[in-house]
Design goal:
- The chain starts with 5 loop residues before the first strand and ends in a 5-residue tail after the last helix.
- It is globular and about 65 Å long.
- The chain is of the alpha/beta class.
- 52% of the residues lie in helices and 14% in strands.
- The chain has two domains: 161 residues, NAD(P)-binding Rossmann-like Domain (Rossmann fold), CATH 3.40.50; 123 residues, N-(1-d-carboxylethyl)-l-norvaline Dehydrogenase, domain 2, CATH 1.10.1040.10.
- Strand 4, helix 4 and strand 5 form a beta-alpha-beta unit.
- The chain is built from 13 helices and nine strands.
- The strands form two sheets. Strands 3-2-1-4-5-6 form a six-stranded parallel β-sheet, sandwiched between helices. A three-stranded mixed β-sheet has the order 7-8-9.
- The longest helix is centred in the middle third of the chain and has 29 residues.
């Protein structure tokens, strides 16, 4: 079965914009929809069709890829007024790259199965720069043969595909990976706050990490400028990681598992969110840690 070339893309935020642009560069026929119309203009300039509604996008696409913020946003573009699902016919495909809950993803897989629509559960690991350079890791859930068939399309958006198992395994794996990212971020922020409290420059932390082969992590390098400059332009907005932490804790609780460190991280992120920092990069937790030092 040939790989579909008519791709509809929904969600042109930080990640979605970069992913969709890479599909255009790879030669796919891409049409786009975004709630904020201004974000579609650069794609119109690339020659992409811009759909007025998700339903209109469905009629011009063989495969729809979604990269939206949360289950509510997914529900809105899928089943809301002029949603894409009622206009999507049997034999087409839906690839969700948003980080949703495992329960929601399971229901989405069942909905697609009943309608005769192929479904792939494909959230991604990687931040803004990885998305821009097509270096994302695609965490793929679905039928193994189907993931294999769509791998050339997936590799236009990332440099690796990790098969996790049937849906919602891609989402489940994404929560595990984001747990690590959340804790790496707060560990780095707490280390910087502790250094400052002891009259040390946080620059020394990064110098030491660079010289220690066991701790020299590329993620720390990505966040160095944020931590040292105390400026937090969003590569991964705090509000999205806070949402994901909620999913992590809910999944653990359902299985009688405690995640005490993740619970503490979630509380710190909630404090930053309630301070009005939700749209900033998740490294902004440093601001809440160092506020007492400035009093």
């Amino acid at each position: 079965m040939p790989l579909p070339t008519r791709i509809g893309f929904i969600g042109l935020g930080i990640m979605g914009r970069a992913i969709a642009a890479n599909l255009v560069k790879a030669g796919f026929q891409v049409s786009v929809y975004n709630r904020t119309r201004e974000k579609t203009m650069e794609f119109a300039d690339m020659g992409c069709q811009v759909a007025a509604t998700p339903g209109a996008l469905a009629k011009m696409s063989d495969t729809i890829i979604t990269m939206v913020s949360d289950p509510a946003a997914m529900q809105a573009v899928m089943d809301g007024p002029d949603g894409f699902f009622p206009a999507f016919s049997e034999g087409k495909a839906l690839i969700n790259m948003s980080t949703l809950s495992p329960d929601y993803t399971s229901s989405l897989a069942a909905k697609c199965l009943a309608a005769g629509i192929t479904f792939l559960d494909c959230p991604v690991s990687g931040s803004k720069s990885a998305a821009e350079n097509a270096q994302l890791v695609i965490l793929a859930g679905g039928e193994k043969m189907t993931v294999g068939r769509f791998t050339p399309l997936l590799k236009a958006m990332g440099n690796a595909v990790v098969y996790a198992g049937p849906a919602p395994a891609g989402t489940a794996l994404k929560l595990c990976i984001n747990l690590i990212v959340a804790q790496l971020t707060t560990a780095l922020a707490e280390a910087a706050a502790l250094a400052e409290a002891q009259d040390l420059s946080p620059e020394l932390i990064f110098e030491t990490l660079k010289e220690n082969s066991a701790l020299n992590c590329g993620y720390f390098s990505l966040k160095k400028k944020n931590i040292l400059g105390k400026e937090y332009p969003p590569a991964f907005p705090l509000k999205h990681m806070l949402k994901d932490a909620g999913f992590m804790l809910a999944e653990a609780a359902k299985r009688g598992l405690e995640l005490p460190v993740t619970a503490a991280v979630e509380k710190l992120m909630a404090k930053s969110y309630n301070s009005g920092y939700g749209d900033k990069d998740l490294t902004v937790v440093l601001a809440n840690l160092t506020e007492p030092l400035r009093r």
